[in-house]
């Protein structure tokens, strides 16, 4: 049997202030997987990942990395791990290349091995030109990429990325996706990703877990999860403003403004029906898009259901 | 980790530590040299010429070993305290924690870094002192042994301090309120035989007295205290501090929530 890259059993965490951040979670990430761990702010994602890489002490439960129990031989388990934390955690006054090479040293890599590897990684991540800059002179997106290079230097089997694309521009984000896909597919590195860009999780990840208030509320494949989505909302841009709401039988229709409609399509319903009815009433649709990305709609409804809260009012912020 | 990897990791920390204090030399190497030059000029030359002899040697020669030791103590301590604390503060300590390095390697790396700074400054101060006096080292091996052991002890102390510290202020409390008074009262400037008997006994519970006196014995061949006892005491302190530091590190005190 192939050991899972990460296995978490009944993991709980109570912080010093008696806050119960994790309430006995179970997770299993097979080797080679691209796994999304999603959840709203404060759900417990970073806490979970922090325990896995020993930045947080667990209260109880069991964690194994490639079959190695972290309570038995954390040192061995750590060799499998590469970590990109949510917050910048390098010395701001050190040089980019030194930061990566120093990390290699901490893993016992010889300079002969580490130097070419560091060069390759910095080139791949577009930082080679900046190798002699001090880290504090990098832009936010560059700092994230520096942390990725640093995490990969010792060729980890399991890469943990806690919001790696936060604050990275669209173009760069896409090239980072390509990069992550490449190391996942070509090098077989298992990747666990947390992100608040659900589009990112949808396009990259095969398996997914959603965590809310310290509990796992979904753990399945991305495909299965998306088929759970029974209603999709589309926005229709009209050729001309309309005076009166058209009547579309069998569908829930809402007017956003004079030239835009929102329509909910329940699973099984056909878009053709909508268009034929609209055409019959002389309403011309020039373009159409999803109101939110599919995963996003699901995510919001799942989290709301598990929190037992009503959909939040516009402008309100959960505490 | 195998032995070679462990060594590489240790060496990496040492190099990083040495680079750090060399890079910021105006904050690390220059100030002690200037302060000590002042001591030599004011206490040694100006006042010392009035004091005459202490324990049978010129006052300048008497205070030089104490001042060298004082620089070693404060510099090894503050190097580790501020370097490790700033790693904590900037979170770069996480680079160390996520790596497979054993705790003793982390601690040893920083301690050796502190020893390097302590000895570096010690050598600079010694060189400066040669402008004012002539040093004829009586027991070279003993002198070197005691200075290294002292640097190790205070480096470990600085490490422990930085683990327990929550803010920058916390790492200056010990140097100001503990190290400086104990050093001044540890016989840097005077022989405890000058004190009333009661205060002589009180002085004997000051660990720094033993280090200063052993070092002075190594250089000048004179001492207020029993040198063998001093070595044993320093070694015992090192062992206790080392174990305490490792224990804190294992518990993740100040590092892991
Ligand atoms: N050191 C700490 N002491 C006390 N409570 C903490 C500590 N760190 C985190 N928490 C609490 O634990 C909960 C989970 O935090 P965590 O950082 O794991 O959330 P997250 O899912 O990563 O959120 P985000 O998406 O905002 O990064 C939060 O309510 C947080 O306030
Ligand atoms: Mg987080």
Radius of gyration of chain B: 19 Å
CATH class identity of the largest domain in chain A? Alpha Beta
The secondary-structure class of chain A comes to alpha/beta
Distance between the termini of chain A: 44 Å
Q: What count of domains describes the coordinates of chain B? A: 1
Runs of chain A with pLDDT <50, length 5+?
310-316
List the total number of helices of chain A.
10
Q: Name the chain pair with the biggest interface and residue counts per chain.
A: A-B, 30 and 29 residues
Shape of chain A: globular
- Estimate what percentage of residues of chain A fall within beta strands: 25-35%
Strand content of chain B: under 5%
Cα shape of chain B: globular
Gap between N and C termini of chain B? 26 Å
Largest sheet of chain A: 6 strands, mixed
Low-confidence stretches of chain B: none
Q: How many DSSP-defined strands of chain A?
A: 14
Q: Please give the largest β-sheet of chain B.
A: 2 strands, antiparallel
What ligands are attached or bound here? adenosine-5'-triphosphate, magnesium ion
The number of domains of chain A:
2
Order of helices and strands of chain A: EEEHEEHEHHHEHEHEEHEEEHEH
Q: For the largest sheet of chain B, list the strands in their spatial order.
A: 1-2
Please write out the topology.
The complex is a heterodimer of chains A (319) and B (257).
Chain A: E1 6-14, E2 20-29, E3 34-38, H1 45-52, E4 60-65, E5 68-69, H2 74-79, E6 81-84, H3 96-106, H4 111-124, H5 140-152, E7 158-162, H6 170-185, E8 190-194, H7 198-204, E9 207-212, E10 215-221, H8 222-227, E11 231-238, E12 252-257, E13 260-266, H9 271-280, E14 285-290, H10 294-307
Parallel strand pairs in A: 3-8, 3-9, 6-7, 7-8
Antiparallel strand pairs in A: 1-2, 1-4, 4-5, 9-10, 11-13, 11-14, 12-13
Chain B: H1 3-23, H2 25-28, H3 30-51, E1 53-54, E2 57-58, H4 59-89, H5 93-98, H6 103-129, H7 140-164, H8 170-184, H9 197-203, H10 207-220, H11 227-251
Helix pairs in contact in B: 1-6, 3-4, 3-6, 4-6, 4-7, 4-8, 4-10, 6-7, 7-10, 7-11, 10-11
The complex binds adenosine-5'-triphosphate and magnesium ion (MG).
């Amino acid at each position: 049997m192939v050991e899972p890259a990460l296995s978490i059993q009944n993991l709980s965490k109570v912080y010093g202030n008696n806050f119960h951040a994790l309430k006995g979670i179970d997770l299993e990430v097979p080797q080679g997987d691209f796994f999304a761990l999603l959840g709203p702010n404060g759900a417990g994602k970073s806490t979970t990942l922090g325990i896995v890489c020993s930045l947080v002490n667990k209260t109880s439960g069991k964690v194994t990395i490639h079959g190695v129990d972290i309570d038995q031989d954390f040192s061995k388990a750590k060799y499998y791990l590469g970590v990109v934390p949510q917050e910048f955690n390098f010395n701001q006054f050190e040089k980019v290349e030194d930061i990566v090479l120093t990390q290699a040293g901490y893993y016992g890599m010889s300079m002969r091995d580490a130097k070419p590897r560091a060069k390759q990684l910095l080139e791949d991540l577009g930082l080679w030109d900046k190798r002699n800059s001090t880290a504090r002179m990098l832009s936010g997106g560059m700092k994230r990429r520096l942390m990725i290079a640093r995490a990969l230097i010792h060729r980890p089997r399991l890469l943990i990325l806690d919001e790696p694309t936060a604050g990275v521009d669209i173009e760069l984000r896409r090239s980072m996706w390509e990069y992550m896909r490449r190391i996942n597919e070509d090098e077989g590195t298992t990747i666990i990703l947390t992100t608040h860009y659900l589009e990112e999780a949808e396009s990259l990840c095969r398996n997914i877990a959603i965590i809310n208030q310290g509990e796992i509320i979904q753990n399945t494949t991305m495909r299965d999860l998306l088929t759970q989505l029974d209603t999709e909302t589309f926005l229709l841009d009209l050729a001309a403003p309309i005076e009166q709401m058209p009547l579309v039988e069998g569908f829930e229709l809402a007017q956003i403004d004079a030239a835009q409609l929102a329509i909910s399509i329940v699973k099984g319903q056909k878009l053709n029906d909508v268009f034929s009815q609209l055409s019959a009433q002389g309403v011309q649709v020039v373009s159409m898009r999803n109101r939110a990305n599919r995963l996003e709609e699901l995510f919001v409804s799942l989290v709301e259901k598990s929190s037992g809260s009503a959909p939040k009012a516009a402008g309100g912020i959960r505490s | 980790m195998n032995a070679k990897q462990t060594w590489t990791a240790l060496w990496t920390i040492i190099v990083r530590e040495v680079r750090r204090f060399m890079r910021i030399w105006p904050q690390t190497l220059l100030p002690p040299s200037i302060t000590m030059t002042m001591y030599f000029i004011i206490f040694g030359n100006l006042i010392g010429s009035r004091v005459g002899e202490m324990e049978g040697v010129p006052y300048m020669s008497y205070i030089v070993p104490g001042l060298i030791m004082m620089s070693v103590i404060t510099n090894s301590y503050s190097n580790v305290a501020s370097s490790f604390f700033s790693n904590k503060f900037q979170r770069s300590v996480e680079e160390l924690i996520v790596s497979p390095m054993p705790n003793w390697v982390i601690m040893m790396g920083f301690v050796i870094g502190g020893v390097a700074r302590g000895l570096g400054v010690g050598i600079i101060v010694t060189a400066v002192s040669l402008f004012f006096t002539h040093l004829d080292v009586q027991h070279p091996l003993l002198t070197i042994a005691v200075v290294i052991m002292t640097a190790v002890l205070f480096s470990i102390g600085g490490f422990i301090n930085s683990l327990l510290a929550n803010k920058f202020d916390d790492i200056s409390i010990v140097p100001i309120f503990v190290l400086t008074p104990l050093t001044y009262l540890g016989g840097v400037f005077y022989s405890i035989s000058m004190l009333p008997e009661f205060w002589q006994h009180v002085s004997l519970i000051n660990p720094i007295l033993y280090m200063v006196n052993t070092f002075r014995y190594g250089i000048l061949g004179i001492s207020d205290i029993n040198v063998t006892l001093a070595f044993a005491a320093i070694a015992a302190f090192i062992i206790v501090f080392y174990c305490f530091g490792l224990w804190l590190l294992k518990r993740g005190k100040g590092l892991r929530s």
